[in-house]
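Bug #2210: token dump truncated for Type II secretion system protein?
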Amino acid sequence: MAFITSLITLGLAWYSAASNAHGVALKAEAEKRNAVIQRLVGYYISSHDGISPEIMAGIALPPTDWLDQQLANLHQNWRMKDYNAKP
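Reproduced locally. Full output below:
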């Protein structure tokens, strides 16, 4: 019985470590994507006139179509429309 308990404990520890590693990878990817979006927002502000106060304040993003085109230009394999879709 102690052996089975040890295996279960070891399995849970491995699962926890794997889950944590996956969580760390997801967090790193989210931080990378956030940095890309922040750069694109800065580019949008500097290259367009009549920017909305919401975009200037950082509470709104440029149009999704524009962001997606810029992401494609940067050869990113993700798009904002994927994140804005409602389930």
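Output looks complete on our side. The chain has a mean pLDDT of 79. Marking as cannot-reproduce; reopen if the truncation happens again.
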